[in-house]
C-alpha cells in the first residue's frame, strides 16, 4: 500500500508540477529501471531533511506518510527550492536517514575523499549537500579509482565515491 501511495504521489508530481521534467530511465539490471529526475524536480522533505529524488536513496517500505504540495502552497511552506512542488515524507521512527555529513561519518570517508564526486546508482549527484540516504537502502559504498560510467553521468574521469543503493520502484 505504501509503495502504491508513493508511486501515485510521484506520478502526480510528475504530471502536475511541470510539463518539462527531465526524466530519464537507465537500466540498472535486466529487471529494473532507475528513475532519474533532475531539472524542475520537486523538492523532497524527508523527516525535515531537504533533498531531491536524484540525490536520495529512500526505502519505500519505511515511509509512513506522504503529503504533496504545489504552487504557492509549496513555496510558502518550504521556500524557493519548492517552486516546482514538494513531497513531504514521514518515515518510520526506526529509519536512519543519513545526510552528507552523517554519511561520511557512518562510512568512514576520509577528509581527503570527502571532496570526491558522489555517484549514486550510476548517476552523478551534482548537489552533494542534498544527499539523503536511508541506511537500510544502501547495499555498498566504495571509493573507485576510476569511475567507469559515461552515460548518463558526465563526470571528469578519476576517483569517485560510488554508492549502490535500493531504487524506489
Q: Could you characterize the architecture of this molecule?
A:
- Residues 1-18 form the signal peptide.
- InterPro entries: Plug_dom_sf (IPR037066).
- With 169 residues, this protein is an alpha/beta fold.
- The chain has two domains: 2-91, Ferric Hydroxamate Uptake Protein, Chain A, domain 1, CATH 2.170.130; 97-165, no CATH class.
- The protein contains three helices and 13 strands; from the N terminus they run αββββββαββαβββββ.
- The protein has helices at residues 2-16, 71-78, 100-106; strands spanning 23-29, 32-37, 43-46, 49-51, 56-57, 63-69, 86-91, 97-98, 118-120, 123-124, 132-134, 138-144, 160-165.
Task: Report Rg.
Answer: 16 Å
Strand % is 25-35%
- With strands numbered from the N-terminus, the spatial order across the biggest sheet is 4-3-7-6
How many runs of DSSP E, i.e. beta strands? Answer: 13
How many helix segments?
Answer: 3
* Unreliable residue stretches: 11-37
Which structural class matches the secondary elements? alpha/beta
Sketch the major β-sheet.
4 strands, mixed
The overall pLDDT average reads 79
Question: Order of helices and strands, N to C?
Answer: HEEEEEEHEEHEEEEE
Task: Work out the helicity level.
Answer: 10-25%
Tally of discrete structural domains: 2
Under CATH at level 1, the class of the largest domain stands as Mainly Beta
Amino acid at each position: 500500500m505504501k509503495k502504491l501511495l508513493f508511486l501515485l504521489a510521484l506520478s502526480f508530481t510528475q504530471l502536475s508540477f511541470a510539463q518539462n521534467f527531465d526524466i530519464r530511465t537507465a537500466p540498472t539490471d535486466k529487471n529494473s529501471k532507475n528513475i532519474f529526475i533532475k531539472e524542475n524536480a520537486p523538492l523532497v522533505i524527508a523527516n525535515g531533511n531537504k533533498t531531491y529524488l536524484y540525490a536520495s536513496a529512500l526505502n519505500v517500505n519505511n515511509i509512513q506518510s506522504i503529503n504533496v504540495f504545489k504552487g504557492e502552497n509549496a513555496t510558502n511552506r518550504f521556500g524557493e527550492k519548492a517552486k516546482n512542488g514538494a513531497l513531504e515524507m514521514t518515515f518510520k521512527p526506526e529509519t536512519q536517514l543519513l545526510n552528507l555529513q552523517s554519511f561520511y561519518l557512518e562510512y568512514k570517508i576520509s577528509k581527503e575523499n570527502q571532496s570526491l564526486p558522489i555517484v549514486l546508482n550510476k548517476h552523478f549527484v551534482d548537489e552533494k549537500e542534498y544527499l539523503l540516504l536511508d541506511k537500510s537502502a544502501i547495499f555498498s559504498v566504495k571509493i573507485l579509482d576510476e569511475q567507469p560510467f559515461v552515460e548518463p553521468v558526465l563526470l571528469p574521469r578519476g576517483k569517485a565515491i560510488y554508492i549502490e543503493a535500493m531504487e524506489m520502484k
